[in-house]
Fold:
Amino acid sequence: MTTYDLAGAAGAGLLDRARTIAKPGFNRWLVPPAALAIHLCIGMSYGLSVFWLPLSHALAGPQDAACRDMSVFDALFTTSCNWRVSDLLVIFTIGIVVLGISAALFGGWLERAGPRKAGFVAALCWGGGFILSALGVYLHQLWILWLSLGVLGGVGLGLGYISPVSTLVKWFPDRRGMATGMAIMGFGGGAMIGSPLANLLMNHFKTADSTGVWEAMATMGIVYLCFMMAGAFGYRVAPAGWAPAGWTAPAAKRTMITQGAVHLDNAHKTPQFWLIWAVLCLNVSAGIGVLAMASPMFQEIFGGSLIGHPETGFSALDAGQKTAIATIAAGLVGLLSLFNIAGRFFWASLSDGIGRKMTYFIFFGLGIVLYAAAPSLAHMGQKALFVAAFCVILSMYGGGFATVPAYLADIFGTQFVGAIHGRLLTAWSAAGVVGPLVIGYIRDAQISAGVERALVYDRTLYILAGFLVVGFICNALVRPVAPKWLMTAEEAARLQTSPKVDSAGSVSQGTDFGGGLDFNTILAWAAVCIPLAWGVWKTLDSAVKIFQ
Structure:
């Protein structure tokens, strides 16, 4: 029986990969909650908007004309003018772009350094980004927020996002989709916890002289730093070549699962990489465009019908009525977030049974129907069906993120899947610009042309359906990689050999790392599930107002 060394790690540094190789008796079910601990923290990137309005009114007193006419450069350094929301939104854009770039740049390093070191650095960047941003708010310097939450936080997002992918795929070769879905669903759920937590902290710290934002950011930065460190030190990697006892890989021709591995340096040279890149980009562009505009879209389409005045359009509502429907629309955003997180686990788990390619066919096929039908549902006044359609759409948006790591592992093998996934996330960066830009630009153009608010999204939704048609075609063109791209068995074995491992001890391929529900496993899952359950409860409490 082939054996895999575990000894020799004692002389390695605490963060080194050799120190994270699992020893006999380790429970592989401890790895998903470690990944969740990191993803639930970095998922707050979707909830940063909770800070924008308080920050835009951070300075008391009237603003003079110079503040209204200041340039972006002036806004970066002013200490006497309130920031515009549009200037604050740049933080999110920078973060998503840097996420993709850092994931692509550091993916290869992650495979060599291991998930613990990557998670440790991610914790410093994300938690430290919040702490430094608190300093920026306190000093009222926008450039500090751009650099701290945008650039530094973006690096934390990229490293934190990809840190568990390769590890989970190798621990769960029998359930690749489910394993990555469990971790990546945390990114969708981070805002469900972070947004209400931020509101609670801001209200707690608010005084006559402070909005409570810098205190809330500093507190959350410390919490995120500690929580992510716990997740990073909870990571363990499977011994090279380990597989669950009795498990055999599915036949490659039937399931499109390769029996070899493509080297990181060659993955981007294959048509499969760019087809899957386009698949992810188009699926995310459609979903993120809706997510970015969900609240105003819901308000403008249904207007007074949300508060019992179906005959009153959005433009005819008074200020008090608009405030009322904005509160209801906030419930929709929370509900969409809930389906976003649920879809990550549901669709990724389903893909283990029906295959990744078929799962994406469902995303695109069903998505085309729902996007195309949404305008008709809106004009018919079918509020519940309209909401249901977008809940399904957002579940597939999240499902696309969670399924793609397993898709890559099937096509390119598991050896470099984390690094390949990092490079693929540049598709997310592109989609983060394209999606909101398309829906925002067309909306503004329609309004400028005099189109009624209830109709301004029709053309946009049809265009997003067109995105999915192209994605459907790209997915159909994905085939197994040509044998010329696969590494030989000797090359793969040489890359798996660690120079820090000696012959003092070993673990056999059939070693059981299942473990069951022991005390440590229950404690680890409780640490991530309790905050997640609180976030779900807060979301449902807000979302129920939609149907009251």
About this structure: The chain is about 70% helix and 0% strand.
